[in-house]
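Pilot study result, target chain (98 residues):
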Amino acid sequence: MFVRIVKMGFDPEKIEAFLENFDKNKSKIRGFDGCMFLELYRDKNNTHQFFTYSYWEDEKALENYRHSDLFKQVWAETKVWFNQKPEAWSVDKVASLE
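Predicted structure:
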């Protein structure tokens, strides 16, 4: 399994548009070949900060998504609302709490 974490900061007045866009596209992303999990989190204290956590079968599956028309469309819509440069981490899952 391959895990991708993306941190995004938004202009406060653009957050509602981002959330609507995420809601519109989350099922398509979750249904993309190789995507096993996708969730969106919002920082409790810094409410313009959001994080996506996605699990992929492997790094190739993530790269296939990142080169897809779906990603290009979602990213083009999302990036105009940023108020800071997004950060991303690709990590391997080491252990589960279960």
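One observation from the pilot: The chain has a mean pLDDT of 94. A full batch analysis is planned for the follow-on phase.
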